[in-house]
Amino acid sequence: MLRAIVKPHEALSRLRQNLLDPLVKKNVTISDIATQANVSKSTVSRVLNDTTPVHEDKRKAVLAAMKKMNFEPNVFARGLASGQSYTIGVVTQNFGSPIYDAISQGVVTGLADTTYSPIFADGQWQPDIGEAVVQTLIGRKVDGLIVIGSSLESSVLDRLKKTIPTVLVGWEVEGWEKQCLFIDNEQAARNATQHLIELGHTQIAHITGIATHQDSMRRLWGYRRALTAAGIEIDEDLIFEGRFDGNSGVLGVESFLMRGKRFTALFASNDATAFGARLALYRRGIRVPEDVSIVGFDNQSEAAFTTPPLTTVRQPAQEMGIAAAEVLLNLLHKKEFTVPKLETELVIRESTRLRGNP
Amino acid sequence: MLRAIVKPHEALSRLRQNLLDPLVKKNVTISDIATQANVSKSTVSRVLNDTTPVHEDKRKAVLAAMKKMNFEPNVFARGLASGQSYTIGVVTQNFGSPIYDAISQGVVTGLADTTYSPIFADGQWQPDIGEAVVQTLIGRKVDGLIVIGSSLESSVLDRLKKTIPTVLVGWEVEGWEKQCLFIDNEQAARNATQHLIELGHTQIAHITGIATHQDSMRRLWGYRRALTAAGIEIDEDLIFEGRFDGNSGVLGVESFLMRGKRFTALFASNDATAFGARLALYRRGIRVPEDVSIVGFDNQSEAAFTTPPLTTVRQPAQEMGIAAAEVLLNLLHKKEFTVPKLETELVIRESTRLRGNP
DNA sequence: TTGTAAGCGTTATCAT
DNA sequence: ATGATAACGCTTACAA
After folding, report:
1. Is A70 left (phi over 0), alpha (psi -120 to 50) or beta?
2. Based on the domain organization, do B177 and B285 belong to the same domain?
């Protein structure tokens, strides 16, 4: 039985399309495939989505037709009919920041062999921008959301939780245990500081990150706890509030030095800060690591090539991104899963050494 | 005249939706707005798209209704009906590379206040991956494409040219003059080398980037031309083929040193390479800039905080991204425009100085 | 297992 | 200027 009959309007529109736009290769639709394979549109849709069993013969015919005609399903029609977009919204805070980029890259990798594509947006660390950006993403009907870095107000977060599958990366939020990926910043900072203590240092300075950031605060706590645990009194004047950038490192060191504060070691809240601190010391003729040891945080790629190479805390950034993608996929497919544990690691290079004689 | 009549199927579907999914807030559609504002769907669509004049009263009523009901047009329906997606595909080569990230960031900025959203994909420097990625993007019905960094074969490029509005960033391609944004790598490299020459250096080494990259080759040419122009003979043994990364810098310097090659200055094809080179010199106890001057390329943020801060060529990366977005927008709206000229700048810091006595 | 047909929410065409 | 209505290409009851 031949199925050559085409709906009048379909024939017409196809005709018009070809007349008006003879150069544009006509878009192959499931109707075309259906005709070609001698089945109905529904059947084509079925083999496309694997929703209902289809006879092997027909399935093969459909597949062959799709291949032959180079069929690509129209995402809009699909989205409109099904309500799914196969798109994941990723909210990052800073294109160009080593750690957030690495996480983003991980997300891309984690999504690479799936039917989902990421669409990125930049929240720029600002809650209101973050909210707007989330809104845009939802307007684009993303199926799920990955929010990297704290930036959303809890009210927005609450709303998200009941609106759309969401995974948080790089910040811990109460009530989000099942969909939240983060490292133990406090423990990592403790280890880093501990490393300095073990090298004999007792006058250990710290330059924090942006005060309102969770990461920043936890690293500060870790620093404090390590000192306290070792019986070292905390000197508040040896703590400088920075902003996670190179300048903060410079300013921090200058500030300590100008006030005559002595220190033989420094723990910076991230590598960029450590670079700045190292430069400030260099300007003053203070040697690293002979006079002052430095530990950073992040292990961004440049850390291995500074002079001297920087001892720092490695964050499994890529892995976090990949894991986030996996968790979200599981969430979308309502599969059971456990959030992976993410470990940091102290990478010891040459910017730290045993404390010399004062 | 009241317009309370609702099509049977519409009422039904709305009813079913509410029955089945009482928690989900019903999606407001233009039909709802039409009813509310006492006009037809068409009119709503008209004020939405500004396609045909609409009486001020009705327009206001529609706008009010949209605001009141918190209407968000459905992107899929829109895309399906209009064939436009208001999405721009951005193909980058490397999430995490300072320069490409900065360009991407620029694209985001350039698109920020438009109706278009970017969707990113990573070509990973591989032509076949690049092609696949472009295919995916087209499958997603992006309205335009921005390809950052060379990665596509010319056959693919030819096809793109007649298929979809495309802008190339960071590589020059013949025949794409109107939609191609790039810096004058050769001139920039010439300036950088020239700077070293003016400081009295004659033994100037160069570590290239990946040999197959256009950027890399042009910087090499610029280096050669500067030397030639100054009447300095080119020593091929002072040229090392690198890969645009820190290790290349280390290996390059080691290679020169091991072969007993003398040089008092070094031009690296990018900053990462310069960092590596600087480290290798440090390891050998060779001072920068007292013994060897170094110039990098890119001016990535870390360059200002190395010891000593690195003299380097600034690329207007952000601006390139912003310009790319603008050019594409103009292309999409068929507006006239001229591709902006992008200038580089030599940022002189402390890694270069007058050649001392040998 | 398969086909029919009714949507999905817009835009675009055609009258009026 | 405005309203009906077809069309966009696909999914999904419902029937068979």
Report:
1. left
2. no
Same domain, A129 and A246: no
Question: pTM for the full model?
Answer: 0.88
Does an H or E element contain A104, and which? helix A98-111
CATH number at residue A328: 3.40.50.2300
3-class DSSP state of B122? strand
Q: Domain check: are A203 and A219 in the same one?
A: yes
Kindly determine whether residue B307 and residue A308, on different chains, have CB atoms separated by under 8 Å: no
Strands of the sheet with B144-148, listed across from one edge: B117-122, B87-92, B144-148, B166-169, B180-181
pLDDT in tens, chain A (358 residues): 333 334 444 444 444 444 333 334 467 899 999 999 999 999 999 999 888 899 999 999 999 999 999 888 899 999 999 888 889 999 998 777 889 989 998 998 899 878 888 888 888 888 888 888 888 888 888 999 999 987 788 888 998 988 899 999 999 999 999 999 999 999 999 999 999 999 999 999 999 999 999 999 999 999 999 999 999 999 999 999 999 999 999 999 999 999 999 999 999 999 999 999 999 999 999 999 999 999 999 999 999 999 999 999 999 999 999 999 999 999 988 888 899 989 999 999 999 999 976 5
For residue B207, the distance in angstroms to the closest alpha carbon of chain A comes to: 16
A17 in the same domain as A69: yes
- Residues A196 and A278 reside in one and the same domain: yes
Find which of A27, A95, A161, A350 to mutate to test the B interface (most B CBs within 10 Å of its CB).
A95
Same domain? A151 vs A41: no
